[in-house]
Amino acid sequence: MASRRRKVIDVKKEEAAEQNGLIGNKIKKSKKKVEIKDGGSFIGRCCSKVKYLFLLILVPPFLNYASLQKEMTELQPAGEMYDIGWGQKLFMMCKGEGAPTVVLDAPTGMSSDVWTRIWPDIAKHTKVCIYDRAGVGFSERPSMNASRINETRSGQPFTVERMAADLNRLITSSSQQPRPFILVGAELGATVAQFYTQIFESDVSGLVLINPLSDVLFEQDEGLWAKYWFGQLIPTYQTLQLGAAIGLTRLALIVGVLKHPLSGSQMTQDIEYRQKHLLCHPKHLSSVVDEHHFINETFSQIKTAKLLKTIPSRISISIMTGNYYDEQMPSSLNKAWAKAEQQFISKHFPTAQHLVVNGADHHMLYKQPHSVVEVILKMVRQVKLRNKNTKSS
Protein backbone atom coordinates (compact mmCIF):
# COMPACT_ATOMS: atom_id res chain seq x y z
CA MET A 1 0.00 0.00 0.00
CA ALA A 2 2.77 2.39 0.95
CA SER A 3 4.55 1.74 -2.29
CA ARG A 4 1.33 2.39 -4.21
CA ARG A 5 0.84 5.68 -2.39
CA ARG A 6 4.39 6.71 -3.17
CA LYS A 7 3.82 5.92 -6.85
CA VAL A 8 0.60 7.96 -6.89
CA ILE A 9 2.40 10.89 -5.20
CA ASP A 10 5.29 10.64 -7.69
CA VAL A 11 2.84 10.61 -10.59
CA LYS A 12 1.09 13.73 -9.22
CA LYS A 13 4.42 15.45 -8.73
CA GLU A 14 5.38 14.64 -12.29
CA GLU A 15 2.01 15.96 -13.55
CA ALA A 16 2.46 19.12 -11.47
CA ALA A 17 5.97 19.54 -12.81
CA GLU A 18 4.72 19.12 -16.37
CA GLN A 19 2.00 21.71 -15.76
CA ASN A 20 4.56 24.11 -14.25
CA GLY A 21 6.79 23.53 -17.26
CA LEU A 22 3.97 24.30 -19.64
CA ILE A 23 3.12 27.47 -17.73
CA GLY A 24 6.78 28.49 -17.78
CA ASN A 25 7.00 27.90 -21.49
CA LYS A 26 3.86 29.98 -22.03
CA ILE A 27 5.32 32.80 -19.95
CA LYS A 28 8.57 32.64 -21.90
CA LYS A 29 6.69 32.64 -25.19
CA SER A 30 4.56 35.58 -24.08
CA LYS A 31 7.69 37.49 -23.07
CA LYS A 32 9.22 36.82 -26.45
CA LYS A 33 6.04 38.08 -28.12
CA VAL A 34 6.15 41.24 -26.02
CA GLU A 35 9.80 41.72 -26.90
CA ILE A 36 9.03 41.20 -30.59
CA LYS A 37 6.13 43.63 -30.38
CA ASP A 38 8.29 46.22 -28.62
CA GLY A 39 11.02 45.80 -31.22
CA GLY A 40 8.49 46.13 -34.02
CA SER A 41 7.03 49.32 -32.59
CA PHE A 42 10.52 50.87 -32.31
CA ILE A 43 11.29 50.09 -35.95
CA GLY A 44 7.89 51.45 -36.92
CA ARG A 45 8.53 54.70 -35.11
CA CYS A 46 11.90 55.06 -36.83
CA CYS A 47 10.35 54.41 -40.25
CA SER A 48 7.63 56.95 -39.55
CA LYS A 49 10.17 59.61 -38.57
CA VAL A 50 12.28 58.90 -41.66
CA LYS A 51 9.14 59.19 -43.80
CA TYR A 52 8.27 62.59 -42.34
CA LEU A 53 11.87 63.76 -42.69
CA PHE A 54 11.86 62.60 -46.31
CA LEU A 55 8.66 64.56 -46.95
CA LEU A 56 10.07 67.68 -45.27
CA ILE A 57 13.18 67.53 -47.46
CA LEU A 58 11.48 66.79 -50.78
CA VAL A 59 8.08 68.47 -50.64
CA PRO A 60 9.15 72.17 -50.32
CA PRO A 61 11.42 72.11 -53.44
CA PHE A 62 8.72 70.38 -55.51
CA LEU A 63 6.00 72.76 -54.33
CA ASN A 64 8.27 75.74 -55.01
CA TYR A 65 9.11 74.47 -58.51
CA ALA A 66 5.42 73.89 -59.32
CA SER A 67 4.53 77.36 -58.03
CA LEU A 68 7.32 78.98 -60.07
CA GLN A 69 6.08 77.36 -63.29
CA LYS A 70 2.57 78.68 -62.69
CA GLU A 71 3.75 82.14 -61.63
CA MET A 72 6.05 82.55 -64.65
CA THR A 73 2.96 83.00 -66.84
CA GLU A 74 0.65 84.75 -64.39
CA LEU A 75 3.16 87.30 -63.06
CA GLN A 76 5.11 88.20 -66.21
CA PRO A 77 4.95 91.99 -66.57
CA ALA A 78 3.53 93.76 -69.61
CA GLY A 79 6.16 93.88 -72.31
CA GLU A 80 7.89 91.56 -74.77
CA MET A 81 10.73 89.08 -74.91
CA TYR A 82 13.21 90.20 -77.60
CA ASP A 83 15.63 87.84 -79.29
CA ILE A 84 19.12 89.38 -79.12
CA GLY A 85 20.81 86.39 -80.77
CA TRP A 86 22.86 83.47 -79.39
CA GLY A 87 19.66 81.74 -78.30
CA GLN A 88 18.90 84.39 -75.69
CA LYS A 89 15.91 86.67 -75.10
CA LEU A 90 15.68 89.76 -72.91
CA PHE A 91 12.55 91.29 -71.44
CA MET A 92 11.72 94.91 -72.31
CA MET A 93 8.64 97.11 -72.05
CA CYS A 94 8.30 100.44 -73.88
CA LYS A 95 5.59 103.08 -73.45
CA GLY A 96 4.97 106.56 -74.83
CA GLU A 97 5.89 108.03 -78.21
CA GLY A 98 8.55 110.11 -79.88
CA ALA A 99 12.23 110.82 -79.46
CA PRO A 100 14.42 110.85 -77.50
CA THR A 101 13.92 107.35 -76.10
CA VAL A 102 14.65 107.16 -72.38
CA VAL A 103 16.15 103.79 -71.37
CA LEU A 104 16.05 102.92 -67.67
CA ASP A 105 18.66 100.48 -66.30
CA ALA A 106 18.16 99.06 -62.79
CA PRO A 107 20.59 98.85 -59.84
CA THR A 108 22.82 95.83 -59.19
CA GLY A 109 20.85 92.59 -59.03
CA MET A 110 17.42 94.24 -59.31
CA SER A 111 14.66 93.88 -61.89
CA SER A 112 12.97 96.63 -63.90
CA ASP A 113 10.16 96.77 -61.31
CA VAL A 114 12.23 99.41 -59.46
CA TRP A 115 11.19 101.95 -62.13
CA THR A 116 7.44 101.40 -61.64
CA ARG A 117 6.87 104.78 -59.98
CA ILE A 118 9.01 106.63 -62.55
CA TRP A 119 8.36 105.41 -66.10
CA PRO A 120 4.61 106.34 -66.28
CA ASP A 121 5.42 110.05 -65.80
CA ILE A 122 8.18 109.87 -68.44
CA ALA A 123 5.83 108.14 -70.92
CA LYS A 124 3.55 111.20 -70.91
CA HIS A 125 6.30 113.23 -72.61
CA THR A 126 8.40 110.82 -74.70
CA LYS A 127 9.10 107.15 -75.30
CA VAL A 128 10.53 105.25 -72.33
CA CYS A 129 11.80 101.67 -72.06
CA ILE A 130 12.55 99.51 -69.05
CA TYR A 131 14.34 96.17 -69.38
CA ASP A 132 15.91 93.35 -67.37
CA ARG A 133 19.59 92.56 -67.79
CA ALA A 134 20.56 88.98 -68.72
CA GLY A 135 19.33 86.45 -66.15
CA VAL A 136 17.74 89.06 -63.90
CA GLY A 137 13.96 89.35 -63.56
CA PHE A 138 12.30 87.80 -66.61
CA SER A 139 15.27 87.96 -69.00
CA GLU A 140 17.03 84.74 -69.92
CA ARG A 141 20.51 83.84 -68.75
CA PRO A 142 23.21 83.51 -71.44
CA SER A 143 22.76 80.26 -73.36
CA MET A 144 25.17 77.43 -72.55
CA ASN A 145 25.26 76.59 -76.28
CA ALA A 146 26.16 80.14 -77.36
CA SER A 147 29.79 79.13 -77.94
CA ARG A 148 28.67 76.83 -80.77
CA ILE A 149 27.32 79.76 -82.77
CA ASN A 150 29.83 81.14 -85.28
CA GLU A 151 29.46 84.76 -84.22
CA THR A 152 31.78 86.51 -81.81
CA ARG A 153 30.26 87.99 -78.69
CA SER A 154 31.61 90.87 -76.63
CA GLY A 155 32.77 90.37 -73.07
CA GLN A 156 32.31 87.79 -70.38
CA PRO A 157 28.75 87.13 -69.12
CA PHE A 158 27.65 89.40 -66.26
CA THR A 159 30.31 92.04 -66.92
CA VAL A 160 29.62 95.57 -68.14
CA GLU A 161 31.08 94.93 -71.60
CA ARG A 162 28.57 92.13 -72.23
CA MET A 163 25.72 94.11 -70.65
CA ALA A 164 26.33 97.12 -72.90
CA ALA A 165 26.54 94.89 -75.99
CA ASP A 166 23.27 93.17 -75.01
CA LEU A 167 21.56 96.53 -74.50
CA ASN A 168 22.76 97.77 -77.88
CA ARG A 169 21.31 94.78 -79.69
CA LEU A 170 18.10 95.03 -77.66
CA ILE A 171 17.29 98.67 -78.44
CA THR A 172 18.69 98.82 -81.99
CA SER A 173 18.60 95.65 -84.10
CA SER A 174 16.07 93.68 -82.01
CA SER A 175 13.48 96.43 -81.42
CA GLN A 176 14.69 99.52 -83.35
CA GLN A 177 13.79 102.18 -80.78
CA PRO A 178 13.88 105.80 -82.00
CA ARG A 179 17.21 107.55 -81.49
CA PRO A 180 18.77 109.45 -79.79
CA PHE A 181 18.78 107.72 -76.41
CA ILE A 182 18.85 109.17 -72.92
CA LEU A 183 20.36 106.46 -70.73
CA VAL A 184 19.30 106.49 -67.08
CA GLY A 185 21.11 104.04 -64.83
CA ALA A 186 21.37 103.38 -61.11
CA GLU A 187 24.45 101.78 -59.50
CA LEU A 188 25.52 98.98 -61.90
CA GLY A 189 22.96 100.32 -64.38
CA ALA A 190 24.85 103.63 -64.32
CA THR A 191 28.07 101.77 -65.17
CA VAL A 192 26.32 100.11 -68.12
CA ALA A 193 25.05 103.52 -69.29
CA GLN A 194 28.58 104.96 -69.18
CA PHE A 195 30.14 102.00 -71.00
CA TYR A 196 27.41 102.06 -73.65
CA THR A 197 28.06 105.76 -74.23
CA GLN A 198 31.82 105.14 -74.55
CA ILE A 199 31.27 102.50 -77.25
CA PHE A 200 28.12 103.74 -79.04
CA GLU A 201 28.40 107.50 -78.47
CA SER A 202 26.51 108.46 -81.66
CA ASP A 203 23.35 106.83 -80.24
CA VAL A 204 23.33 108.81 -76.99
CA SER A 205 22.32 112.40 -76.28
CA GLY A 206 22.09 112.33 -72.49
CA LEU A 207 23.12 110.45 -69.34
CA VAL A 208 21.48 110.41 -65.92
CA LEU A 209 23.61 108.54 -63.38
CA ILE A 210 21.91 107.71 -60.07
CA ASN A 211 24.14 106.61 -57.17
CA PRO A 212 26.76 105.47 -59.69
CA LEU A 213 29.23 102.77 -58.70
CA SER A 214 32.72 104.25 -58.43
CA ASP A 215 35.56 102.19 -59.89
CA VAL A 216 37.66 103.14 -56.83
CA LEU A 217 35.00 102.08 -54.30
CA PHE A 218 36.98 99.05 -53.11
CA GLU A 219 40.13 101.13 -52.60
CA GLN A 220 38.54 103.49 -50.07
CA ASP A 221 39.28 103.26 -46.33
CA GLU A 222 41.50 100.18 -46.51
CA GLY A 223 39.09 98.19 -48.66
CA LEU A 224 36.12 98.52 -46.33
CA TRP A 225 33.59 98.10 -49.13
CA ALA A 226 35.51 95.20 -50.69
CA LYS A 227 35.29 93.33 -47.38
CA TYR A 228 31.57 94.06 -47.11
CA TRP A 229 30.85 93.24 -50.77
CA PHE A 230 32.67 89.89 -50.90
CA GLY A 231 32.46 88.97 -47.21
CA GLN A 232 28.81 89.78 -46.47
CA LEU A 233 26.80 90.85 -49.51
CA ILE A 234 27.63 87.97 -51.87
CA PRO A 235 27.33 85.25 -49.15
CA THR A 236 23.90 86.67 -48.27
CA TYR A 237 22.70 86.31 -51.87
CA GLN A 238 24.24 82.83 -52.09
CA THR A 239 22.28 81.83 -48.98
CA LEU A 240 19.09 83.21 -50.54
CA GLN A 241 19.82 81.24 -53.70
CA LEU A 242 20.22 78.01 -51.71
CA GLY A 243 17.06 78.78 -49.73
CA ALA A 244 15.14 79.29 -52.98
CA ALA A 245 16.46 76.02 -54.44
CA ILE A 246 15.27 73.94 -51.46
CA GLY A 247 11.98 75.82 -51.08
CA LEU A 248 12.71 77.45 -47.72
CA THR A 249 12.52 81.00 -49.08
CA ARG A 250 8.87 80.56 -50.07
CA LEU A 251 8.05 79.25 -46.58
CA ALA A 252 9.90 82.20 -45.02
CA LEU A 253 7.89 84.65 -47.16
CA ILE A 254 4.62 82.93 -46.26
CA VAL A 255 5.22 83.15 -42.50
CA GLY A 256 6.56 86.72 -42.80
CA VAL A 257 10.14 86.02 -41.70
CA LEU A 258 11.53 87.33 -45.03
CA LYS A 259 10.56 90.42 -47.05
CA HIS A 260 11.18 91.23 -50.69
CA PRO A 261 13.50 94.12 -51.71
CA LEU A 262 10.72 96.59 -52.62
CA SER A 263 8.54 96.03 -49.54
CA GLY A 264 7.14 99.17 -47.94
CA SER A 265 7.48 101.25 -51.11
CA GLN A 266 3.81 101.65 -52.16
CA MET A 267 4.02 99.13 -54.99
CA THR A 268 1.00 97.46 -56.58
CA GLN A 269 -0.04 93.98 -55.51
CA ASP A 270 1.17 92.53 -58.83
CA ILE A 271 4.67 93.84 -58.19
CA GLU A 272 4.58 92.59 -54.59
CA TYR A 273 3.77 89.09 -55.89
CA ARG A 274 6.35 89.35 -58.67
CA GLN A 275 9.13 90.37 -56.29
CA LYS A 276 8.28 87.44 -54.02
CA HIS A 277 8.32 85.17 -57.07
CA LEU A 278 11.80 86.37 -58.04
CA LEU A 279 13.05 85.89 -54.50
CA CYS A 280 11.96 82.23 -54.78
CA HIS A 281 13.59 81.77 -58.22
CA PRO A 282 17.08 80.17 -58.08
CA LYS A 283 17.99 81.30 -61.63
CA HIS A 284 17.22 84.94 -60.88
CA LEU A 285 19.24 84.79 -57.66
CA SER A 286 22.09 83.04 -59.46
CA SER A 287 22.29 86.03 -61.82
CA VAL A 288 22.15 88.43 -58.85
CA VAL A 289 25.14 86.60 -57.38
CA ASP A 290 26.97 86.71 -60.73
CA GLU A 291 26.46 90.46 -61.18
CA HIS A 292 28.04 91.02 -57.77
CA HIS A 293 30.74 88.38 -58.23
CA PHE A 294 32.11 89.81 -61.50
CA ILE A 295 32.19 93.42 -60.29
CA ASN A 296 36.01 93.62 -60.35
CA GLU A 297 36.01 92.61 -64.02
CA THR A 298 33.36 95.28 -64.63
CA PHE A 299 35.48 97.93 -62.89
CA SER A 300 38.51 96.90 -64.95
CA GLN A 301 36.54 97.16 -68.21
CA ILE A 302 35.09 100.61 -67.46
CA LYS A 303 38.54 101.92 -66.43
CA THR A 304 40.00 100.71 -69.73
CA ALA A 305 37.15 102.28 -71.72
CA LYS A 306 37.71 105.65 -70.03
CA LEU A 307 41.43 105.51 -70.76
CA LEU A 308 40.77 104.93 -74.46
CA LYS A 309 38.44 107.92 -74.91
CA THR A 310 36.27 110.39 -73.06
CA ILE A 311 32.55 110.97 -73.39
CA PRO A 312 31.91 113.82 -75.89
CA SER A 313 31.00 117.21 -74.41
CA ARG A 314 27.81 117.39 -76.53
CA ILE A 315 26.25 114.68 -74.32
CA SER A 316 24.35 116.13 -71.35
CA ILE A 317 25.21 114.47 -68.03
CA SER A 318 23.37 114.68 -64.71
CA ILE A 319 24.36 112.83 -61.54
CA MET A 320 22.01 112.16 -58.64
CA THR A 321 23.11 111.01 -55.18
CA GLY A 322 21.63 110.85 -51.70
CA ASN A 323 23.14 111.93 -48.40
CA TYR A 324 24.29 108.35 -47.84
CA TYR A 325 24.16 104.96 -49.54
CA ASP A 326 21.86 103.26 -47.02
CA GLU A 327 20.66 104.80 -43.76
CA GLN A 328 20.54 101.31 -42.18
CA MET A 329 24.24 100.70 -42.84
CA PRO A 330 27.15 101.53 -40.50
CA SER A 331 28.37 105.11 -40.90
CA SER A 332 31.83 103.87 -41.90
CA LEU A 333 30.43 102.23 -45.05
CA ASN A 334 28.33 105.29 -45.90
CA LYS A 335 31.36 107.58 -45.51
CA ALA A 336 33.53 105.35 -47.70
CA TRP A 337 30.78 105.29 -50.36
CA ALA A 338 30.49 109.10 -50.28
CA LYS A 339 34.27 109.55 -50.66
CA ALA A 340 34.42 107.17 -53.62
CA GLU A 341 31.46 108.88 -55.28
CA GLN A 342 33.00 112.33 -54.87
CA GLN A 343 36.28 111.13 -56.39
CA PHE A 344 34.34 109.56 -59.26
CA ILE A 345 32.51 112.82 -60.04
CA SER A 346 35.53 115.12 -59.73
CA LYS A 347 37.75 112.86 -61.84
CA HIS A 348 35.42 111.76 -64.64
CA PHE A 349 32.51 114.25 -64.70
CA PRO A 350 33.68 117.57 -63.21
CA THR A 351 31.30 119.61 -65.39
CA ALA A 352 28.23 117.40 -64.89
CA GLN A 353 25.20 118.70 -63.03
CA HIS A 354 25.30 117.08 -59.58
CA LEU A 355 22.09 116.96 -57.56
CA VAL A 356 22.10 115.75 -53.94
CA VAL A 357 18.65 114.61 -52.80
CA ASN A 358 18.39 115.41 -49.10
CA GLY A 359 17.29 112.53 -46.89
CA ALA A 360 17.62 110.04 -49.75
CA ASP A 361 19.66 106.89 -50.12
CA HIS A 362 19.81 104.21 -52.81
CA HIS A 363 16.09 103.53 -52.34
CA MET A 364 15.19 106.90 -53.91
CA LEU A 365 13.98 105.24 -57.14
CA TYR A 366 10.88 103.92 -55.41
CA LYS A 367 10.72 106.01 -52.23
CA GLN A 368 11.42 109.48 -53.72
CA PRO A 369 10.61 108.96 -57.41
CA HIS A 370 9.48 112.53 -58.13
CA SER A 371 13.03 113.85 -57.68
CA VAL A 372 14.26 111.38 -60.29
CA VAL A 373 11.40 112.16 -62.69
CA GLU A 374 12.16 115.90 -62.56
CA VAL A 375 15.81 115.40 -63.54
CA ILE A 376 14.95 113.05 -66.40
CA LEU A 377 12.21 115.29 -67.83
CA LYS A 378 14.51 118.30 -67.63
CA MET A 379 17.02 116.42 -69.79
CA VAL A 380 14.27 115.32 -72.20
CA ARG A 381 13.29 118.97 -72.71
CA GLN A 382 16.94 119.96 -73.26
CA VAL A 383 17.49 117.26 -75.87
CA LYS A 384 14.25 118.07 -77.71
CA LEU A 385 15.13 121.76 -77.79
CA ARG A 386 18.64 121.02 -79.02
CA ASN A 387 17.34 118.73 -81.76
CA LYS A 388 14.79 121.37 -82.80
CA ASN A 389 17.46 124.07 -83.01
CA THR A 390 19.73 121.75 -85.00
CA LYS A 391 16.98 121.07 -87.54
CA SER A 392 16.03 124.73 -87.86
CA SER A 393 19.62 125.76 -88.48
TrEMBL record:
Q: Which GO terms describe its biological process?
A: acylglycerol catabolic process
Q: Which organism is it from?
A: Patella caerulea (Rayed Mediterranean limpet)
Catalytic activity, as annotated = Hydrolyzes glycerol monoesters of long-chain fatty acids; 1-dodecanoylglycerol + H2O = dodecanoate + glycerol + H(+)
State the Gene Ontology terms under molecular function.
Answer: monoacylglycerol lipase activity
The EC code for this enzyme is 3.1.1.23
Q: What class of enzyme is it?
A: hydrolase
Report the function annotation for this chain.
Lipase that preferentially hydrolysis medium-chain saturated monoacylglycerols including 2-arachidonoylglycerol. Through 2-arachidonoylglycerol degradation may regulate endocannabinoid signaling pathways. Also has a lysophosphatidyl lipase activity with a preference for lysophosphatidylglycerol among other lysophospholipids. Also able to degrade bis(monoacylglycero)phosphate (BMP) and constitutes the major enzyme for BMP catabolism.
Q: Where in the cell is it found?
A: Late endosome membrane; Lysosome membrane; Mitochondrion membrane
So which domain of life are we looking at? Eukaryota
Q: Which Pfam families match?
A: Abhydrolase_1
Classification via InterPro entries:
AB_hydrolase_1 (IPR000073), AB_hydrolase_fold (IPR029058), AB_hydrolase_sf (IPR050266)
- Annotated membrane topology: Single-pass type II membrane protein
Main localisation, per the record?
Answer: membrane
Matching entries from PANTHER family are given as:
MONOACYLGLYCEROL LIPASE, MONOACYLGLYCEROL LIPASE ABHD6
- Chain ranges of the AB hydrolase-1 domain: 109-231
Instruction: Tell me what this protein is called.
Output: acylglycerol lipase
In the UniProt record, which is one GO cellular component term?
A: late endosome membrane
